[in-house]
Specification:
It contains 14 helices and 13 strands. By secondary structure, it is of the alpha/beta class. The protein folds into two domains: 40 residues, no CATH class; 431 residues, Amidase signature (AS) enzymes (Alpha-Beta Complex), CATH 3.90.1300.10. The protein has an eleven-stranded mixed sheet, with helices on both faces. It comes from Peribacillus asahii.
Length: 508
């Protein structure tokens, strides 16, 4: 395919967009100069780019009907089997539908991508298959993953297995619902503001956002390079640790990674927390207007119960935690508009693997079908672009700079405490908005629960949801946060809680 030469009119429009005052003669000169460089683009087409490997055979599978899809949590069903032996042998795993699985449709929750089929396997997919796991399909996720609830996907709301009128949480909505319902053993989620931990909390399962960069994001549709995480969801801490061991470690293709040591996470599950110091962060409780008192009480009781396993538990104050969600908003929305939307999901100026088929498909679709974005995506685009145009990226930059102060505030606490605890979400699962709800309700219900989760996407600390007990028939989640690189300690504390209370999650 030869690159088309730009017309004078096309160049004139570009020039105007950059406030360049060029005559037609100027534009003709630039047009001739551009022609020579276009040969380089033509040569790039001829060289052939490397792609992510696709090792194991598969069929495309099918989209299940409503009888097979009680919670509307499945986007696609298939069966891709890898190695006959390995640590994941016998395990059925579902992928969030922003993870590339070659030959199987990938919608990323959005109508504009319906029909797109990747031609590559994400790094974590290859690792799961090598370890003997069976990938059984794709779980519904929110529209471009921009919701902490479960009502924005183009395929309709994902229903909470504990109460079909309630949200599962998002954006890994289908992943958590299918684990909670017992339809799969494990799931992959992705997390930019809480999207593993929120649905794990509202569905009553275990979900870990690993340390930033521990698990490669290669082959997964991103939102914002500095907050992208992917990780495991399961019904037991053992299965979370097992899946993390398989998918963690550098792949040489993801600039988010920085050589973090992969540990034997299963070996960290010793059943107790002797000599572990736990700080209950008081700023994670009592959020005005959204905190539910039963959630506060259940989480405090759960934290103090770890004293029975040898931990030292104290209440502490980290005032800057209250600013975390503001910092996330300060650069997350502008960042995602730049990378995910204007940059056609991949952006530029970073080294690593680019999923060019997805980039091209999204870029074409957003130019012709933008009206089909969800309300949350539209709001993010409008605000992100407004801030960029009016303030020239200044507040994105301030947000990234202030994020280092937030990380230091937590790290100061980690000088005295091994883990921090607070509610994963200030409230239990909320009612799903009606289909004709006003835009304000749709958007507010998508982001109202991220206050405690979003700060740790900024700082990169590992953070895990641990199901405590039900209140009013709905699960309550406790979040355990650890030092950067100490996912093993987070898992150890979670396992001690599971051991004390027998909190292996049963299939619904």
């Amino acid at each position: 395919m030869s690159i088309k030469r730009p017309t004078i009119e096309q160049l004139k429009k570009i020039a105007e967009g950059f406030n360049l005052n060029l005559t037609n003669n100027d534009l003709a000169s630039y047009q001739k100069l551009i022609e020579g460089t276009l040969e380089s683009y033509n040569r790039l087409n001829q060289i052939g780019e490397p792609s992510l490997p696709v090792k194991y055979p598969r069929t495309s599978g099918y989209r299940p009907n409503s009888e097979e899809n009680l919670y509307n949590a499945w986007y696609w069903k298939t069966s891709v089997k890898g190695n006959s032996i390995g640590n994941l042998a016998g395990k059925k795993i579902v992928l969030k539908d922003n993870v590339s699985l070659a030959g199987v449709p990938m919608m990323n929750g959005s109508a504009i991508l319906e029909g797109f089929v990747p031609d590559e396997d994400a790094t974590i997919v290859s690792r799961i298959l090598e370890a003997g796991g069976e990938i059984v399909g794709k779980a519904v996720c929110e529209d471009f993953c921009l919701s902490g609830a479960s009502h924005t996907s183009a395929t309709g709301p994902v229903l909470n297995p504990h109460d079909l009128t309630r949200s599962t949480g998002g954006s890994s909505s289908g992943s958590a619902a299918l684990v909670a319902a017992g339809e799969v053993d494990m799931a992959i989620g992705a997390d930019q503001g809480g999207s593993i931990r929120i649905p794990s909390s509202w569905c009553g399962v275990y979900g870990l956002k690993p340390t930033f960069g521990l698990v490669p994001y290669t082959g997964i549709a991103p939102i914002e390079m500095t907050i992208d995480h992917t990780g495991p969801i399961a019904r037991t801490v053992e299965d979370v640790a097992l899946l993390l061991e398989v998918i963690a470690g550098d792949d040489g293709l993801d600039p988010r990674q920085s050589g973090l040591k992969v540990k034997s996470y299963l070996d960290s599950l010793v059943g107790n927390v002797r000599n572990i110091k736990i700080g209950i962060v008081k700023e994670g409780f009592e959020w005005e207007g959204i905190s539910e008192e039963d959630v506060n009480q259940v989480v405090r009781d759960a934290a103090y119960s770890l004293e029975n396993s040898g931990a030292i538990v104290e209440e502490i104050s980290i005032p800057m935690h209250r600013d975390g969600v503001h910092i996330w908003n300060g650069f997350g929305i502008e960042g995602l508009t730049s990378l995910m939307v204007k940059g056609n999901s991949m952006g530029s100026n970073w080294k690593g693997h680019y999923s060019t088929k997805f980039l091209d498909a999204f870029g074409k679709a957003r130019k012709t079908r933008a009206d089909e974005f969800s309300e949350t995506t539209k709001m993010s685009i409008l605000l992100g672009q407004y801030m960029n145009e009016q303030y020239n990226g200044k507040y994105y930059a301030i947000g990234q700079n202030v994020a280092r102060k937030l990380k230091q505030a937590y790290d100061n606490a980690f000088k005295s405490y091994d883990v921090l605890i607070m509610p994963t979400t200030p409230m239990k699962a909320q009612k799903i908005p009606s289909p004709d709800a006003p835009i304000e309700e749709i958007v507010n219900k998508a982001f109202e629960m991220i206050n405690n989760t979003a700060p740790f996407n900024i700082t990169g600390h590992p953070a895990m949801n641990v199901p405590c007990e039900k209140s009013e028939g709905l699960p309550v989640g406790m979040m355990i946060v650890g030092r950067v690189g100490e996912d093993d300690i987070v898992l150890r504390v979670a396992h001690a809680f599971q051991t004390i209370h027998g909190r292996v999650v049963n299939k619904l």
